[in-house]
Design goal:
Strand content: 15-25%
Shape: globular
């Protein structure tokens, strides 16, 4: 029977956040960002397993949950970390080719459960998979090298990708094996390189990614609620 497995790449150093430690280990409202993120999936009725992919030397994150497995096989980039995590799940018999893998950013710790529900319902049985995303609402400007405006970019049909991004294990493994990982910005981009068009499922503006120090204030407010 097909299972839903959350895969959280957490091997990054969080250089842009500037906290002196990986941003997934910043503590907010009594728990690390990573623990908040993991809890989203362990508390969801339709997620069977959560795999956290850590750097080989990372021993900061520990868990006693039976629904969480720690994989110390993170790579130098997000794409390498996800690829290594999938290989480890398959090697250890924790995932099968037909299972769904939901890759989610460790720093998106405010994912609303109803957005996760929408993704599972809309894309859980689709061979092409799907991702959470939101239509672009702001006016987009293309910049010149000196940061002056070169053009206004039409926003019609443009969506901002979020996570989770859901694909069958076999498809995602193939996509990451065949892609130039330096050109992969998210899992969907690797799948697109195979000529496959994943489904866009409307996400949620609260599902923001903790990237810059000023994001922490908003995340604290969201988690407090």
């Amino acid at each position: 029977m097909k299972r839903n497995i959350a895969l959280i790449p957490a091997a990054g150093v969080g250089a842009r956040f500037g906290a002196g430690k990986p941003k997934q280990y910043v503590e907010i409202n009594g728990k690390t960002v990573l623990q908040h993120t993991v809890d989203i999936f362990t508390e969801h009725r339709d997620i069977d397993l959560t795999a956290v992919v850590l750097a080989p030397e990372d021993r900061f994150f520990q868990t006693a949950s039976e629904k969480v497995v720690l994989l110390h096989c993170g790579g130098a980039t997000r794409a390498q970390t996800v690829r290594n995590g999938i290989d480890a799940l398959l090697t250890q018999g924790l995932a099968q080719a037909e299972d769904n893998i939901l890759v989610h950013d460790a720093a998106r710790c405010c994912l609303p459960p109803d957005a996760l529900d929408r993704l599972l319902k809309a894309a859980g049985n689709r061979p092409e998979g799907g991702i959470l995303a939101i239509p672009v609402a702001d006016t987009l400007k293309q910049a010149q090298a000196d940061k002056h405006i070169q053009a206004t970019v039409p926003r019609a049909g443009l969506w901002q990708a979020q996570t989770p991004q859901l694909f069958q294990t076999a498809l995602l493994k193939r996509a990451l094996a065949e892609a130039d990982l330096n050109a992969v910005t998210d899992e969907a981009s690797a799948v697109e390189m195979l000529g496959i068009q994943p489904l866009l499922v409307e996400g949620d503006s609260r599902n923001l990614k903790l990237t810059l120090p000023q994001d922490e204030y908003i995340v604290r407010l969201l988690l407090a609620r």
